[in-house]
Amino acid sequence: MVLVTVGLVVVQEMAARLGAFTGKGLAALIREEFTLRISAFALFCLIVANVGLVVSEFAGIGAALELLGVTRFISIPIAAMAIWALVLFGSYRYAERIFLVLSLIFFAYPLAAILGHPNWGDALGSTLLPHLLTSKNFILLGVALIGTTITPYMQLYVAAAVADKGIGPDEYRYEKLDSIGGAIFGDVISLFIIIATGATIGRQGQALTSAKDAAAALKPVAGRFAVQLFAFGLFGASALAAAVVPLSTAYALSEAIGVERSVSRRFTEAPLFLSLFTFQVVVGAGVALLGGNLIDLLIRTQILNGLITPVILIFVLILANRRSVLGDAVNGPIFRVVATVCVGAVSLMSAIVVVQSILPWFGFA
Questions:
Q1: What domains can be seen in the chain, in order of their start residue?
Q2: CA nearest 84: which of 232, 237, 280?
Q3: pTM of the entire structure?
Q4: pLDDT tens digits, one per residue of 308-342
Q5: Which of 143, 141, 145, 136 is nearest to 357 (CA)?
Q6: Is the separation of the CB atoms in 325 and 22 below 8 Å?
């Protein structure tokens, strides 16, 4: 998680800098700086990664409401229709605030980590000196961790959001602090989630096979209400992302093609934009509805995201290294090395997973 945090900080900073110094989103820059075929490949990878992410968010909604006694066959279709309607009819802003408040429940994890009485020596030791295993499961989960942290849609969202807010070179220093601070803060919470879960569940040698198992990590804080607390937090975070991710994809592709993009438009005015959003919601909800064990589905979709992440990161790195794009704000020598190492490490892990998946086809274990 520490290594992933370093990578996230580096990538987020480059994405924000591209938005501030060019006034354009990442999709538009890829279209302008690369050939049509390369741009189409990048956008295809983005669609695949983001659709997989939308699937995982609806799986999260289903898993959360199953904890409250609502079957996924009811919760996921209703959630999909509600999110689609909220976004298209312009009332999503109010629902977004509710989802954000529900997501704040995850701030209970630092307290849960403390009350769970972990072995702090082991926790701090593994934080400062991360252990790496060569087992297939370890590498798969490592790629899944990358996919859910340095996720492609976030880089497009950051660059586009900075450009849309009109943040220029003069104000960039504040955006830089915001991007780096947000990346570190979010991953610190993730570290506490790992510690709390390890202290309450991992020490028992128990495997996580359901959301109910994961909810046990909040027992030191919430006691018998841990399941309900976890359910509300998971629902809020998943519902928020289930709307933001397909919207970011629709904005990016519409921006790259140069067509109308706005949730305030009708289908006849922005057909591609609204069709892309609708398509992702339908596919994401449909796959989550029929995807078997929701925890396994969450992991598989994040592994897919992790495999595609290097493609987008390579584009970000190339653009941030080009003086013709950023001028004097281009990556400096030291930052270029650090960024290259981060992108290279992510790419290497993804390549190992691909090789491990292909070898059995040729009779190699």
A1: 2-362 (1.20.1740.10)
A2: 280
A3: 0.83
A4: 889 889 999 999 999 999 999 999 999 999 999 99
A5: 136
A6: yes
